[in-house]
Amino acid sequence: MMAWAMNAFSNNSSSILQQKFQRAIDDQLSSPASPAQLLLAFTLGGFLRGMTVAVLTFLAASVLVDMPVEHVLVLIPSLCLVGFFFAQLGVLVGVRAEQFDDVSFAQTFVLQPLIFLGGVFYSASLLPEPFQTLTHFNPVYYMIALVRYGFVGYAETSIALSLVLLSLATAALFAFNLRLFSTGYKLRA
């Protein structure tokens, strides 16, 4: 999941920022493609890069260790939603960034803490009370719960609730990015 998420994010945030610096984004914005088509093109680019890295990582790990997949019908949609979410997040950061330090800031001080505090390495139920409740406001917590359930069949949260929340968050991020592309916010010179 993390390979897919970080590659989807990195691909889109750096690609958009680099195109803004080189002013190549102007050519795409003046093309007959609609803002929705441009947004989907960027999103699918990051999504596919993340998926490629994740599949190769899974295949390599499967050769070395036994990788259980308990609930494939939960795992595949969950991974797709996670990839799409982080691809959209990469688009948002790339559009808003004015220099490469802005992208690094988002990765270092926003994404990494959310990932590490999302229950990757521990069960959220082991935390003392204010932190246990705060963990439930972390969207990565639900992503990790879905993927963990897909692989090993263990869940701390409702799987249906996690899927709904992740779907809503992804749709909201897509709608927000579509609005940014439609208005040309920080994309047009």
Task: Characterise the protein shown here.
- It is a single chain.
- 76% of the residues lie in helices and 0% in strands.
- The chain has one domain (2-183).
- It is globular and about 50 Å long.
- The N and C termini lie far apart (36 Å).
- It is mainly alpha-helical and 189 residues long.
The helix count comes to 8
Count of folded domains: 1
Which structural class matches the secondary elements?
mainly alpha
The helix content is over 70%
- Indicate the low-confidence ranges by residue numbers: none
Gross morphology is globular
> What is the straight-line distance between the termini?
36 Å
Order of helices and strands: HHHHHHHH
- The share of residues in extended strands comes to under 5%
Biggest sheet: strands, sense, closure? Answer: none
- Strand tally is 0
Task: Name the average pLDDT.
Answer: 92
What is the CA-based Rg, rounded? 17 Å
Compile the SSE list and pairings.
Elements: H1 2-22, H2 25-29, H3 35-64, H4 72-96, H5 100-116, H6 129-135, H7 139-152, H8 159-183
Task: Write a brief structural summary.
The chain is mainly alpha-helical and about 190 residues long.
Provide tags for this entry:
mainly alpha; globular
